[in-house]
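Example 5.3 — FAD/FMN-containing isoamyl alcohol oxidase-like protein MreA
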Amino acid sequence: MGRFIPLLALASSALAWIGEVKEENGVKYQCKCYSDNACWPTVTDWTSLNTTVAGALKRATPPGAVCHRSLSTAGVSNASTYNAAACADAQANWLNEKWLTDDPIASLWPLYTNNTCLPTSDPNSPCTQGFYGVYVIMATTKAHIKAGVDFARTHNLRLIIRNTGHDFLGRSTGKHLTELRGYGSLIINTHSFKDVTFTTKYTGIGNWTGGAATVGIGMQGRELFKHCFDQSPPVVIVGGECPTVGWGGGYIQGGGHGPLSSIYGMGADNILSFDAITVNGEYVTANAVENPDLFWALKGGGPSTFAVVTSLTVKTFPEVPTAGTIVNINSTHTNDTAVFNKGFTIFHNLANHYTDHGMFVYFELSTGRLHIAPFVGPRMNTTQVEAVLKPLFDQLDAAKIPYDKYTRGFPTFFQFYIDMFEDEQPNQNSIVGGRLFSQTDIKERGDAVAEALLFASAPTADVGGFSVGHILNPGYGVPVADNAINPKWRNASSFVITNVIMNGDESWELKKERENIQTNVVGAALRKAGPDGATYVNEGDLNEPNWQTSYWGSNYPKLLELRKKWDPEGVLYTQTTPGTEDWSVIDYGTKLCKAVS
Ligand SMILES: Cc1cc2nc3c(=O)[nH]c(=O)nc-3n(C[C@H](O)[C@H](O)[C@H](O)COP(=O)(O)OP(=O)(O)OC[C@H]3O[C@@H](n4cnc5c(N)ncnc54)[C@H](O)[C@@H]3O)c2cc1C
Ligand SMILES: *[C@@H]1O[C@H](CO)[C@@H](O)[C@H](O)[C@H]1NC(C)=O
Ligand SMILES: *[C@@H]1O[C@H](CO)[C@@H](O)[C@H](O)[C@H]1NC(C)=O
Ligand SMILES: *[C@@H]1O[C@H](CO)[C@@H](O)[C@H](O)[C@H]1NC(C)=O
Ligand SMILES: *[C@@H]1O[C@H](CO)[C@@H](O)[C@H](O)[C@H]1NC(C)=O
Ligand SMILES: *[C@@H]1O[C@H](CO)[C@@H](O)[C@H](O)[C@H]1NC(C)=O
Ligand SMILES: *[C@@H]1O[C@H](CO)[C@@H](O)[C@H](O)[C@H]1NC(C)=O
Ligand SMILES: *[C@@H]1O[C@H](CO)[C@@H](O)[C@H](O)[C@H]1NC(C)=O
Ligand SMILES: *[C@@H]1O[C@H](CO)[C@@H](O)[C@H](O)[C@H]1NC(C)=O
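Solution (predicted structure tokens):
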């Protein structure tokens, strides 16, 4: 099979362009190589890559493929996949976060796989690649990651770094809901990088002399918290609330909020050094002295944007006694919508009050259901938490809003975390959006913010929604770190993820309509209610208007320059990250291409 190498060579590129040249609506594009293109690597090329990675290259097989007779992919030979025992296992574990994150390629948010190849009870039903990539390197060494980056660069393949598959926005399957971004890609799985070492006194670059940990890129939230707790004395690291979300991958590179952010800042604020592989396949360290610009950008500048991180060194802090409260208002208490809405508004209008006391609050909101689980009071005992929350319960009582609550205190944050946080359920279908409301938004327009959030639970007569909120102010009493995170986070009060509920089997047109509801109905209401706010790239809308400013504020121009420096050709790609403006998905959403005219 001949390789298709157009004569056109980019002036800025050392390599001749290998790939399809396409034209759509008068714009000329150069596309990544896909499995239905002549430029797709030959079997010999893949075999050679497999040799380089010591056999760690696998066909990327959707987790439900074991329930189907065979997997078919354009341009690649079909694989027979059925295995009754493995199928029963897949069916039993379809809502198990750990099982899914341990899978080589599974995405926990099936809309971003096109809901392809589900664990059916009909083995004859078709299983296609959907939005998943075609090959995956199950990397166990840095050299495997480098080999994957080099192969994707030289063969012009869409490259996906897959840590846990947790990304709400499908960025680890590498496609967009209705645009098949990443269809035909090479995936590098970093899940096995779980090494961690602790020191009680950091002696590396910079002025930090407290404790530190060096953490492998595959480490997940709860396992990292557990390692911290097992130290003597126990320590804490700022991480997210979800037990299985990766810690050092998308989380840190997007900024990273968590239950201790109100006292210790954002996840990315606390990084001391990164080890990474550049898009040119070079091993680099990035810290305050070595590659300080890359150091700055990796701290919140966007996942899969500047380099592939392999490990991180982060500040540890002393454990803290922690107390908190769980509150419910739902149909057990009232079916009166006006009463419920008033209760939510009272709760949410006190957001600045909670953060002024260093609290973090996690809540879930849908029509008639508010589940606050939990209020987190670091460095507090139950008496202190009850004192901070007294105005809330006084106001609810005065307004005759029924609710239930309980408060518990623990000697450490870790014990609190294990007891008071709940696991989320994966494999739900929704289109994500959201907004960060500032202290000013809450103070000056709290009722309007609450109203917009209540509206997001039922934006139209036939569309349902639910929201996940995080009340925190990572600027409160914490020295401001110099990094790429949107400066708006320093005045944050409430960051809420909104979801438009989907079935997953909607037509292309209906998916587009529902995306429009998230962006232009729900999103418009949120922006109107919170004009001083911002959005969060890890938990935001892929169609966010003015995403550059919305996600990064005044840091965007510098991030754009750094993207041009560290990945000028677009070896990495994640939608709505710095420097991706020229890239689009054309040809009915199947090809990731860069406009060249
Ligand atoms: C249930 C749930 C709870 C969450 N809770 C929180 C929370 O409390 N706080 C918070 O801030 N966020 C939270 N998030 C959002 C989370 O930060 C993002 O989904 C994040 O992208 C997950 O990163 P990951 O590495 O686990 O996921 P993946 O899906 O594997 O990767 C996500 C993105 O990061 C890129 N990436 C992964 N590893 C690397 C690497 N080594 N180098 C370069 N790029 C890499 C991927 O290519 C992809 O673009 C939550 C998400 C979910 C689904
Ligand atoms: C890579 O090599 C290993 C070990 O020989 C083999 O099991 C695997 O199937 C190969 N991968 C591909 C995609 O052929
Ligand atoms: C692969 O599977 C598809 C779908 O089942 C089928 O149409 C196609 O003929 C198969 N290709 C080969 C080479 O068997
Ligand atoms: C996605 O799903 C739709 C509906 O089942 C189907 O028509 C389309 O071909 C799928 N796309 C891919 C890339 O599998
Ligand atoms: C250490 O602190 C000094 C004084 O605040 C500052 O000027 C210097 O930049 C810091 N060094 C590093 C590497 O952060
Ligand atoms: C409503 O709150 C009660 C606690 O009072 C809880 O047991 C129940 O699960 C909640 N219902 C819903 C739908 O969340
Ligand atoms: C609300 O309605 C549900 C369903 O009809 C009912 O079970 C519940 O008891 C009602 N709650 C209250 C507080 O009346
Ligand atoms: C909490 O701490 C305060 C201040 O030290 C103390 O007065 C109070 O008794 C403590 N409450 C509990 C339940 O330990
Ligand atoms: C945060 O608020 C303070 C005062 O409340 C203000 O001075 C500062 O400019 C704000 N910062 C941002 C990034 O909005």
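Remark. The CA atoms of residues 191 and 218 lie 4 Å apart.
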